[in-house]
Amino acid sequence: MAKHIHFIGICGTAMASLAGLLQLKGHRITGSDQAAYPPMSDLLGELGIPIKEPYSESNLDPRPDLVVVGNALSRGNPEIERVLDEHLPFTSMAAVVREEFLQGRDSLVVAGTHGKTTTTSMLAWIFEVASKQRPELAPSFLIGGVAENFGTSFQLRETNNFILEGDEYDTAFFDKGPKFLHYFPDALILTHVEFDHADIYADLDAVKTAFKRLVNLVPRKGLLVAYDASENVTECVSKAFCRVERYGFSESADWQLRNMHHVGGLSHWELWHDGALWAEMQMALAGEHNALNATAAAALAAGRGLEKSAIVDALKTFKSVKRRLEVRAVVNGVTIIDDFAHHPTAIQQTLRALRSAYTSLTHGGRLWVVLEPRSNTLRRKVMANELSASLCEADVVVLAAVYQLEKIPADERLDEHAVIEAVRKAGHPVRICADVAAIIDSVAKNVRSGDVVAILSNGGFGGIYEKLPERLRAEAKA
What we know:
alpha/beta; UDP-N-acetylmuramoyl-L-alanine:D-glutamate ligase; Rossmann fold; 14 helices; 10-stranded mixed sheet
């Protein structure tokens, strides 16, 4: 039976994707948010789903049959207050996924501190390519980003496999457990386990506990594919009841990467399985972390019975995910990159991947990083040393003011000046800019042909992705 379902916080990546899935099932969808920004605002616009801004009690008129509450929202939001006052039926995004889409299907989940979105997209594309010969493999999926091969972040098929990104962040203000505990995986990829989400996890042990609980949900007949070069991952999978296969560069890995190199814009590596050469792999994405992501997806797909040829062909044709090493513009030899990196390790991996991919950086070009500390981890001082070290992977560092610093308790706030001083002592030019206009002015006056500018944020960053190329084009015409 079709329902009117209203989403509070609809522009979150998972929320917008779920809204699209429910629309495919025939439901009427409305939504609200404080500030809509791409790529999800564009996706919702293409779907014809209206976004009401800002939050208001009137956004719930006419009265919906069900309200889905985003996990970033809390008491005091006017729409949540009306929901509670009037006893409107409400639920969480993760609960809807479980109830509406996973019942009766095999749940294939990708989890971990880093690499979830890209690995989930790779896995979905592998199943899609394999379905050309075996239609029963056509996947449904829900991804926390727009997979470029599909042009969307969701797909619904009448087949058995549902592939989804398992987020360790909490579920809703009324359900503080991680979202992925709703998904009961039949097969699971675990990429990395590090401290993150400092607003909801007290320490690394708390993070590991969440992942251990996820591992404990995989049935005996299931499959767990886990990164092999992390003590944290090893601890989390040590008591799994299912078959566990490890992947990585070490000789002990069940799925081992060897002889990786980047030539002609392509990454190449040998993939060995149980000590024998399994396949020669090729992919357009740069970076060891992306080769690891691809290997994890290949291992799970092979474990689910997909043909090797389909796996190899899919990864050869895999494009990327929006906001993951995405080239936004090339102006007068200056390449501008958009990436979602929001954790020191992810920042380090992104910058290393760019250095390996762009030959101009070995011929006088400089690698810039323009960072907005916006995630709930980066806005806190808990990982300040790791942040400073990761920024030193760049040649030039530009740091934006910490996003909404006033919302972080004073004794937990990141001291951006301490970060700058640490980077400067390491011998790297670094500056802090109060706003986007100042950043654009600083970058535009100092970049030169051959430079690569990586803009890192997990938000809209004041439209800098569009404004900086516009400024560079304008100066080129002047």
